Amino acid sequence: MPQVLLPEPSTRERPRRQPTRSGQRYFIRTFGCQMNEHDSERIAGLFELDGMSPANSFEAADVVYVNTCTIRENADNRMYGNLGQLKAVKDLNPDMMLVVGGCAAQKDRELVREKAPWVDVVMGTHNLDRVLDLLDHAEHWGPITEVVDELQAMPSSLPAKRELAHSAWVTIQVGCNNTCTFCIVPSVRGVEVSRRPGDIVREVERLQRDGVVEVTLLGQNVDTYGRDLAIDGKRRPIFGDLLRRVGEIEGIERVRFTSPHPNDFREDVALAMAETTAVCEQLHFPLQSGSDRVLAAMHRGYNRRKYIERLAMARDTIPGLAVSTDIIVGFPGETDEDFDLTMEVVEEARFDQAFMFIFSPRPGTRAASMTDSFVPDEVIQERFSRLVETQNRISGELNAATVGSRMKVLSEGPSRKRPEVATTRSRTGKVVHVEGDYPSGTFLEVEIVSAAQHHLVGEPV
Ligand code: SF4
């Protein structure tokens, strides 16, 4: 069952108000990455503390929150499409309150207003804690836009309503100090701000008391965690130490994190992963391209050799490590030779999973202005198909190699498509389908009996 979790009194930003929306229903639509999912959990937590309960659809809701993304054009287009649909819903139910938050609202507040003037509240990524006040304001005084540039409250200091009672996101850092030329994150999430390690540990301890057994530490570049902090004016906390501290908390069985950066990933983090039992053998290691020329144009800070060396170090240090990656196809100026270099790395690295994207220019990024070197769509499509085919083959081969092995998996409850089957996850992050009724949060030992490209099938042993 989803749960609402209150923050510790010491981390509360302000006195809690009395619920004013009892009986109302809310619906949240989230686009984009885990950071947005995490923010949506916090928005849901605030709504529930104000007396609201979830609705199953836009139409059944009194308050709709659309959490937007600017990273991918697709998400952007779908978001504006959704706002169009919501106009029709609002015409039928003019009392419905519509809030647009997230990265697109942070960056393009005027555009959101212009394209969807029926939105009641436009708010950014830095002021989640204001959502209820902004709703009140819009109800009494009309539409409002409030986007601020400075972080008002760490998302983790707000109440949360988690989808999985046993599993929680924990923000350790927001913002990013890098300047990847395709990425809008630094301009919508700001510079890196790390949470103090003691606050993070206390939050995880509290989550554990609340029944959580798995946490995912969340940051844009977790490897640089703590660089902006100084403890007693001396030593700054580092990510490897944080992993060890969180991994030692009794009752926390699994610790994951996302995302590390190949340029900043060092042996101390790999050692912390290997030496801390609770930290899972799973690493998301974004490649983006296998060509040094393209990596330099992307401003990634590493080259192909460094990436491969660090990946090898991680695999040598952490037995049984599963690796996933991100790859962008068709970055401006990418030639056939550049793409072949990416394919070489894909063949050599043998990623368990890859999130593959077609380059889409995001307004406000440097890459979006490289129009002279945009790669023709048909060329990108052909490269993308080849990449997907190759990666699917590799994922299938790696999954097939697990048949006959045993794994401890953690149930996430019945599969949405086939409720007679439980969706579970291995420590390495692989989805394992197991026939039977295993409530969310149940650990079980399974033998893998068959494998497909994107999931495994297990039988309890
Ligand atoms: S590391 Fe690069 S891609 Fe990741 S959030 Fe920072 S700027 Fe964006």
Task: Identify every distinct bound molecule in the structure, by name, code or SMILES.
Answer: iron/sulfur cluster
Rounded radius of gyration (Å): 22 Å
Helix percent reads 25-40%
Mean pLDDT: 90
Report strand %.
Answer: 15-25%
The unreliable regions are 1-15
For the record, give the distance between the C-alpha atoms at the N and C termini, rounded to a whole number: 27 Å
| Overall number of domains | 3
Q: Examine the coordinates and then state which fold CATH places here, giving the name of the CATH topology of the largest domain.
A: pyruvate-formate lyase- activating enzyme
From the coordinates shown, what is the CATH architecture of the largest domain? Alpha-Beta Horseshoe
Strand order of the largest sheet: 3-2-4-5-6-7
Helix-strand makeup class: alpha/beta
Question: Going by CATH, what is the homologous superfamily of the largest domain?
Answer: tm_1862 like domain
Q: What is the 3D shape?
A: globular
Number of helices: 13
* Level-1 CATH class name of the largest domain: Alpha Beta
Q: Count the strands?
A: 21
The description of the largest β-sheet is: 6 strands, parallel
Task: Label this structure with key terms.
six-stranded parallel sheet, alpha/beta, Rossmann fold, pyruvate-formate lyase- activating enzyme, 461 residues, 13 helices, 21 strands, binds iron/sulfur cluster, 3 domains, five-stranded mixed beta barrel, disordered N terminus, OB fold (Dihydrolipoamide Acetyltransferase, E2P)
